[in-house]
Specification:
The chain is built from 4 helices and 4 strands, in the order E-H-E-H-H-H-E-E. It is 30% helix and 30% strand. A 4-stranded antiparallel β-sheet has the order 1-2-3-4. The protein has 125 residues and is an alpha+beta fold. It is elongated, with a radius of gyration of 16 Å.
C-alpha cells in the first residue's frame, strides 16, 4: 500500500533508539539498536497556506514517540513496535495514512545480512 492519491507526505527517516525487544533472552537483557522510518499521509495544504504548526503534524513529536516506544516496554516482535507507532500516528486528527518501518540491524540471524525490517501501513479509508 502506498500513500493514497491526493495526500501529501511527511517522512521521518532513520530515528535511532536503543531497546530491549526480541524473542531471545539475551536480546531482552542486553538490548540493541533499532532504526525507524515513518511516513504520514496528510493534506499539507492548510499548513502550507497558513504557516501554522497546528495545521500539520509536528515531526519532532513523531520522533519523540518513536524513541519512547523503542525505549519503552519490551515486546517480542518488531511487528508489535511498528503497530504501536502506526496506531499513535493515526490517532492524530490530520493523519489519513501512516507507514512505519522498524529496522533491526543486529537481529540474531546466523547468516550475513545487512538489515531486517517490518513495515506496517494503515489508513482510515
Amino acid at each position: 500500500m502506498a500513500c493514497p492519491d491526493g495526500l501529501d507526505r511527511i517522512d521521518l527517516s532513520g530515528v535511532t533508539a536503543f531497546g530491549h525487544h526480541g524473542v531471545l533472552e539475551h536480546e531482552r537483557r542486553f538490548g540493541q539498536t533499532f532504526v525507524v522510518d515513518v511516513s504520514l499521509g496528510i493534506d499539507l495544504g492548510p499548513a502550507g497556506s497558513s504557516d501554522d504548526l497546528t495545521a500539520t503534524v509536528n515531526y519532532a513529536e513523531v520522533a519523540e514517540m518513536v524513541q519512547d516506544v523503542v525505549t519503552g516496554d519490551p515486546v517480542d516482535l518488531i511487528e508489535s513496535l511498528a503497530l504501536r507507532m502506526v496506531d499513535w500516528c493515526l490517532a492524530r486528527p490530520s493523519v489519513e495514512w501512516a507507514s512505519v518501518t522498524v529496522h533491526k540491524p543486529q537481529a540474531p540471524i546466523a547468516v550475513t545480512f545487512s538489515d531486517v525490517s517490518v513495515t506496517i501501513e494503515r489508513s482510515h479509508q
